[in-house]
Write a structure and sequence with these properties.
Length: 550
């Protein structure tokens, strides 16, 4: 955990006071909604379909137990008793009254949480691997560099009013758990000839015009991280479209000028600033590294007897195989908490659940919680000997469904139930799918399968990179859904392929089931995943079954 210093705390207090004054002026009519809009967006406040929504920043997805309790308190006191975790490792409260927003923000500021960089045309909250600092396959903890970027980018005077929002993601592992290739900038920390540096990927993004990011530098020394990012942002800020909101993202600029030309412009800008004040030396990195509190891991036995005994229980064994991952420290494990129970909105957690999870984090997980872009939570550090007891308590609060990375671990946007931009509802589709595929043995047999749902073309549910992607479209005031197959958001990211015309809401769950049955009939063995089968067979066999007359 990174611990904020006095400067951070004072800054947040001053920001809350400033926003309190802005809200007061809005309520008394001194500001109209159009004048208030840019002010509220800079603090993470949206006006949605029914009410104002507060999006709270969780820097690089890391929470302490007291911070999670503060979020629970806001959900209980100011909202309707729950919060929604997002694909950007943030949390949203959908029903806070405008007059109470400053009080909610003040309560969050006491534990170092805020809404900065969660909205507006600025550099957004940098996201990273929820297993950072614990994963066996990482070369270094990427959160150090995410924090460096946070400090550099917060209220950056040159990049506060970009052509459009700007998203950065970092991974340091062989397996990409941060979807870096569908971000404006993706950074992959790796080693070359004994030195650690970054592969720099630009121009990724989904939405109306989806693109997979392109590598513009294979290896960037880590001391050059901020100067190179500054060169990218300057190139984008200067050449980005400001005449068309749909063409204002960096992905369009990279596409229009070409990857090589964009890289040339960045390198030319970088040559002028690379040896300046933004150069990172070890002293600067150490100063930030020293503010991270790392658990003091005691030497523990791998696979202790208490764990071996518990694995005799088939229910525990199923959860352990699905939701527990190896840790880099012997005797420890990484545990994913599923926020995708049968029949519930994906990514939602109640205030009572958040309080209970905070308590369990302190008891079993060194007080630390992570938010994953799949809209689940993670305990990155758990003693293996505590896994049986932890499982029982997670099960009691409804976050131990063994469906991580399976068909009911659905990524979904809030859709038309909340969002004024949406064409269709998303949450009811996700709920019906979890009910259709409720049998744990069945979904385990189906294996790894990512279903992503978006209620509109803005793609907040990342449907383009779902193994099965579902996009809501409106036809003559009715809800229809397009389906794509074969998308992937990992290190081999690719966009899914549209299989045919949209189907009505009443048919979408049946169509998904037919797609799954086609896979089960045609796979070479249970080891062949759904997406591997789509790559081998193409979409035609699936299309034929999906649209077969009934």
């Amino acid at each position: 955990m990174y611990v904020y210093d006095e400067f951070d705390r004072t800054f947040l207090e001053e920001r809350v006071a400033e926003f309190r004054d802005q809200v007061a002026r809005r309520l008394c009519g001194a500001l109209n909604e159009e004048e208030f809009k840019p002010l509220r967006l800079m603090n993470g406040v949206y006006l949605q379909l029914h009410a104002y929504m507060l999006r709270v920043c969780i820097p690089y997805g890391t929470l302490s137990a007291p911070q999670l309790r503060a979020l629970a308190a806001v959900a209980r006191k100011y909202d309707r008793g729950y919060g929604h975790f997002t694909t950007r490792q943030n949390i949203q409260f959908n029903w806070i009254k405008l007059a109470e927003l400053p009080d909610a923000m003040a309560d969050l500021a006491k534990v170092g949480i805020h809404g900065l960089q969660t909205s507006g045309n600025c550099i957004r909250n940098t996201t990273t691997d929820p297993w950072a600092g614990a994963a066996q396959d990482e070369v270094e903890d990427p959160r150090l560099y995410a924090e460096v970027i946070r400090q550099w980018s917060t209220l950056h005077p040159e990049f506060t009013y970009l052509p459009r929002k700007f998203k950065i993601a970092i991974t340091a592992a062989r397996h990409d758990r941060a979807a870096i290739r569908v971000h404006d900038v993706g950074l992959r920390l790796h080693r070359r000839n004994g030195e650690t540096g970054f592969e720099v990927i630009v121009g990724g993004g989904l939405g109306r015009t989806p693109f997979i990011g392109k590598t513009i530098r294979d290896f960037l020394p880590k001391e050059d991280l901020l100067s190179y990012l500054e060169a990218i942002l300057r190139t984008y800020n200067l050449g980005g479209r400001r005449d068309n909101i749909y063409k204002a993202r960096i992905k369009i600029q990279v596409h229009e000028v070409g990857t090589e030309e964009f890289a040339r412009r960045v390198e030319a800008e970088w040559a002028q600033i690379r040896d300046g004040a933004l150069r990172l030396d070890e002293a600067a990195l150490d100063a930030i590294r020293d503010r991270f509190v790392t658990p003091d891991f005691a030497p523990l036995e791998d696979a202790p007897a208490v764990l071996a005994d518990a694995l005799a229980d088939p229910a525990f064994a199923r959860w352990h195989a699905n939701s527990v991952a190896p840790h880099k420290v012997p005797g420890h494990a990484i545990v994913t908490l599923s926020l995708k129970p049968v029949g519930a909105p994906p990514g939602d957690a109640t205030a009572d659940q958040m309080d209970a999870i905070a308590d369990l984090a302190e008891q079993y997980a060194y007080g630390e919680i992570r938010v994953a872009h799949e809209q689940n939570l993670t305990f990155p550090h758990v003693r293996q000997q505590d896994l049986p007891a932890l499982w029982a308590k997670l099960k009691a609060i409804g976050v131990a469904t063994p469906n991580v990375a399976l068909i009911t671990d659905i990524i979904s946007c809030p859709g038309l139930d909340y969002c004024s931009l949406a064409n269709t509802r998303s949450i009811p589709i996700a709920q019906k799918l979890t009910e259709r595929f409720a049998d744990e043995a069945r979904i385990a047999d189906i294996g790894r399968l990512h279903v992503n749902i978006s209620g509109c073309i803005n793609a907040c549910g990342h449907h383009h990179v779902g193994h099965i992607g579902i996009l809501g479209v409106e036809k003559k005031d009715e809800e229809f859904f397009q389906i794509t197959l074969g998308g992937k958001g990992n290190s081999k990211a690719r966009l899914g392929e549209l299989i045919g015309p949209a189907v009505p809401e009443s048919q979408i769950v049946d169509v998904v089931e037919r797609l799954v049955d086609t896979y089960l009939d045609l796979r070479t063995s249970p080891a062949e995943t759904f997406v591997a089968a789509v790559e081998r067979l193409g979409i035609e066999p699936f299309k034929e079954r999906a649209y077969a007359p009934r």
